[in-house]
Amino acid sequence: MRSQIPLPVDELPTKWYNILPDLPEPLPPPKEPETGPSRMEFLARTMVKECLRQEMSSERWVPIPEEVRELYLHMGRPRPLYRAIRLEKYLGLKRVRLYYKREDLSPTGSHKTNTAVAQAYYAMKEGKTTLTTETGAGQWGTALSYAARLLGLDCVVFWVKSVYDWKTDRRTLMKLLGAKVYASPSQQTRIGREVFSKNPEHPGSLGIAISEGLEYAETHEDAVYCLGSVLNHVLMHQSIIGLETIKQFDLIDEKPDLIIGCLGGGSNFGGIALPFIGEVLRGKRECGFLAAQSMAAPNLVKGEYRYDFCDVAEYTPLLKVYTLGHKVEMPPIKADGLRYHAAAPIISLLKHHGLVKAVAYPTDEKAVFEAARIFLQSEGWLPAPESSYAIRAGIDEAIKAEKAGVEKVICMNISGHGFLDLMAYKEKLETG
Ligand SMILES: *Cc1c(COP(=O)(O)O)cnc(C)c1O
């Protein structure tokens, strides 16, 4: 039996899937808060116009521009689906079949390049020359640096200082790609200088870094601000993952019963799940969906469904989301990419309607790192710490079904590889 299920290059989807027209109820619209300036006007000034248009689109299928499709091919899409034969054997599975989608094969190590190249392309079309953003874990900053370089644009990344100081290898990769990378709080913006002058040792935060990215875009005519998760257009760009996966399952005449992805903001989970959920909503398929989270940020598991800001600094409009509160303190974990206070509005609505379920794993990450080790030793690929949450959930669900004597087909999304997270693995290895 073959483990790899490739998709021929000619089969790369030509359209993204936009779930908005298929949702069980209209997505609650963004709202302006009661005080302060218009957040909607602010975003219209600082973000890519085509992305904001896509945010509200009611078209189910949105053509992928030929240049973006070419970039997808260039960066190795379509990506293979794998049957986890070796992991199945390790777990002694007889009735359960396990599959995984390989977003770890991305050039910068995560699925985030799928939306980065699309956003960079539209920015270039709109005459912008500089992309700006913030990054926490570093995956988004790297993906946007990559996309900017391939499209001949500059990239300015504000990176939370405590992580900037620590992840030297990822910083090197961003700089090699030609990005300007600043530890945030930086000297480049008014807000950065203000925070810095009060406390030169400030470790930074995602909120400050977002403020710096937005201020930079607002004060530089040629610059636009890009976001890597949560928003509708980001999830739509990521639908390429699930659209490919549907074709791959069709090729082998198999139907998944459960799709699993890790979830921080929801872009990789949405990317693989939304095209399948669309078919469920249109009565064409039956399938379950499970988001794997950390107890450090269990927005779907423990959050409230209500309007909240997407950022600490309250620059964004209010979105209806499952949230822990935009000012909540989240304990540090190695899977830093999962530490976000709210789930995407689309995923939140689907959770509210019972179409998406969620599970959260303890912040010591023992169970999750054990799953990563099992996956590496059986399948041979080192997953990102974030992706290991999906693997943990996949293993748990497989064992549960096996014990119950149920036949089940499970598909996990491997959102990224762990080669630039070896420091985290080293620490876990040494401390147990
Ligand atoms: C950013 C990231 C995530 C979490 O973000 P989502 O928006 O929930 O997808 C997960 N895995 C990897 C490898 C990431 O880089």
Q: Could you list some keywords that capture this structure?
A:
single chain; 432 residues; alpha/beta; Rossmann fold; seven-stranded mixed sheet; four-stranded parallel sheet; 43% helix; 17% strand; globular; binds pyridoxal-5'-phosphate
What's this entry about, in short?
The protein is an alpha/beta fold and 432 residues long. The protein has helices at 39-46, 49-55, 66-74, 85-91, 113-125, 139-150, 161-166, 168-176, 190-198, 206-219, 232-251, 267-281, 299-302, 345-352, 366-379, 385-403, 422-431; strands spanning 4-5, 15-17, 61-63, 81-83, 96-102, 130-135, 154-160, 180-184, 223-225, 258-262, 288-294, 304-308, 319-323, 357-361, 408-414.
Structure description:
The structure is a single chain. The protein is α/β, with parallel strands linked by helices and 432 residues long. The protein has two domains: 4-11 and 65-109 and 232-431, Rossmann fold; 22-35 and 44-60 and 111-225, 3-Layer(aba) Sandwich (Rossmann fold). The protein is 43% helix and 17% strand. It is built from 17 helices and 15 strands. The chain has helices at residues 39-46, 49-55, 66-74, 85-91, 113-125, 139-150, 161-166, 168-176, 190-198, 206-219, 232-251, 267-281, 299-302, 345-352, 366-379, 385-403, 422-431, and strands at 4-5, 15-17, 61-63, 81-83, 96-102, 130-135, 154-160, 180-184, 223-225, 258-262, 288-294, 304-308, 319-323, 357-361, 408-414. It has a seven-stranded mixed β-sheet, sandwiched between helices. Helix 12 links the parallel strand 10 (258-262) and strand 11. Helix 3 (66-74) packs antiparallel against helix 5 (113-125). The two termini are 36 Å apart. The relative contact order is 0.16. The mean pLDDT is 96. The chain binds pyridoxal-5'-phosphate. The site of pyridoxal-5'-phosphate has 19 residues, from helix 12 and helix 16. Pyridoxal-5'-phosphate is lined by residues 110, 112, 139, 229, 262-269, 337-338, 384, 386-387, 415-416.
